[in-house]
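Honest question from a wet-lab person: if I give you the sequences of every part of a complex, can you actually get the arrangement of the whole thing, not just the pieces? Trying it with mine:
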Amino acid sequence: MKVKSIRGFRDILPEEIKRWHFIEEKCRKIFEKYGFSEIRIPILEQTDIYTSGLGDTSDIVSKEMYTFEDRDGTSITLRPEGTAGVVRSFIENSMGKKSPVNKLYYSGMMFRHERPQKGRYRGFNQMGAECFGSESAYCDADIISMLWSIFSELELNNHVKLEINSIGTSEDRAKFREELVNYFEPQKDNLCDDCKRKLDTNPLRILDCKVETCLTTIGKAPSILDFLSIDSKNHFEKIKFLLEKIDIPFTVNPKIVRGLDYYTDTVFELTTDKLGSQNAVGAGGRYDVLVKQLGGPDTPAVGFAIGLERLILLHEQVFPEEYRQNVDIYVASLGEKALNEGIYISNILRKQGLNVEYGFDKKSFKSQLKRANKINAKYTIIIGEDELDRNVFKLRNMKLSEEKEYSLDEIENFINLIS
Ligand code: AMP
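Yes, you can. This is the full assembly:
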């Protein structure tokens, strides 16, 4: 049997993980800075929450979900995104009754059966945030500010572009949809097959088609912004005003419609020109009807999700230096007695808060020092029979290649020797 991972699924290897930790930690800090608490939701949900939440005609529901029957015949789905599951939990746990506003963030793997390529996987990670209970534009601006602040704290803000739009209420969209169909129908032949299909199922989605031959026709299409009701227009104007006030650069792109049915009013996307065709690194919007649609109380909400693989790819390009495991001390001991002392010393140093690798595989000092160099240890402690007899250990500063001897008694205060 030849073992192999499933197409579109990848491992995150030890040599990559430090960058992941660094970025995830930054995101968590920012979520908490904005008053968000983490929620952990299951990876499997009943299929209905996605079919009724995301819309039958969305790409995710129509062709990308990993759906199968549970042993009792219930249809279940590996989560393709985080929002619907968080909404389900919000309803099930009556969160709205406990607090008027709930600010939640999540992190985890999502599953979509897409065509894999660089930056697009079938199993990928998102970190996202959802705020329930406020319909105000101040809330939208605060959420967008949080998204932007993740990229600016990571010093990636010069490599991303924030685009915002409003898709109004469902009535606004109904009028706009009619107008779009009237516009595209006579020019159907200029559209790709996918767009032709969307003309019947979800004409708004034609607007975010990236196929070259469709672009000219799409370019001249009517704009949703001309169909907004007064309230939606005011809401959008207020967000723009607030983003300007807090110095967040953005452009308005009326072609952003987002792929899912649950969005209302505000939608936004963060893209980069450094990742080729998979250029979206984060996206979100307002979804004022989803909670009710999934059987909960009428609750406005807004949120976003960041694609972690793409954020990491972007970060690697901008900051190519390696992110390494931090090893303070390598303990090299040779001979049974010294090895016994080595494990003892290693544990004392770990209790002092140091990261310690104990060389336990009875190799020569030469190969142990090679290993210490390889893992970038700051210091190596060397104990052989000779050192043990004299009750000392050698401390080698790896950067300066300098060695000093200390009494073994000093291990108890070791941290002071190197600080
Ligand atoms: P969406 O839920 O489609 O709005 O996606 C939010 C973010 O998740 C996107 O901006 C991407 O960064 C990321 N993303 C979506 N689909 C994939 C995928 N198949 N592979 C990797 N990242 C993805």
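Two things worth pointing out. Residues 81, 112, 114, 120-121, 124, 126, 280-283, 305, 307, 309-310 surround adenosine monophosphate (CB under 6 Å). Residues 14-168+228-318 form a domain with the BirA Bifunctional Protein; domain 2 fold (CATH 3.30.930.10).
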